[in-house]
Amino acid sequence: MTVTAECLISPELPNQWHLIRGYLVEACQYSDGKFTPSDLFRAIFNNKMQCWVFKNERGEIIAALVSEIIRYPKSLRLHIGMYGGAPVEETIGAFLPILDWGRANLCEAYEITGRPGWERLLIRFGLEVEAIHTTLRGNLHG
């Protein structure tokens, strides 16, 4: 199956939202309570985040991914933090244009927040991976 990725620009978002909202609801379930679909809509619409849609050969949207360029004091990074839809094994081949977009926007590296399976998948598809951080979370309010 041939899958392509394209970035939704903010003027298109309201008309396309009904096609991708379900994928982002799914993604938010794994965000550890950081985001709701409404949060993502506002961030994407205000150009603070990017929404990438994955389409099959019939042009149907089968998945959505949200990225964000993060400016650290010493580095600019493309952060990929939300994905929902088709199994990522089916769409990973379409990630290269997203990484190229990050490069074109002066990002020095990409970061992915996700479960451990992401690392194995990226390596299998020949992408450079440096697993250098594990994020741990503890509840401070009982």
What does this structure look like?
With 142 residues, the protein is an alpha+beta fold. The protein has a single domain (4-124), classed as Aminopeptidase, CATH 3.40.630.30. Helices cover 32% and strands 25% of the residues. The protein is built from 5 helices and 5 strands; from the N terminus they run βααβββααβα. It has helices at 13-28, 37-45, 88-91, 96-104, 117-124, and strands at 4-8, 50-55, 61-71, 76-85, 109-112. Strands 1-2-3-4-5 form a 5-stranded mixed beta sheet, with helices on both faces. α1 (13-28) crosses α2 (37-45). The relative contact order is 0.17.
Keywords:
single chain, 142 residues, alpha+beta, Aminopeptidase, 5-stranded mixed sheet
Strand proportion: 25-35%
The CATH homologous superfamily = Gcn5-related N-acetyltransferase (GNAT)
Uncertain parts: none
Q: Over all CA atoms, what is the radius of gyration?
A: 15 Å
Sequence of secondary-structure elements: EHHEEEHHEH
Distance linking N and C termini:
47 Å
Average pLDDT rating: 89
For the secondary structure, the number of strands is 5
CATH class: Alpha Beta
The shape, in one word, is globular
Strand order of the largest sheet: 1-2-3-4-5
Q: How helix-rich are the residues, as a percent range? A: 25-40%
Structural class: alpha+beta
How would you sum up the major sheet?
Answer: 5 strands, mixed
What is the annotated CATH architecture? 3-Layer(aba) Sandwich
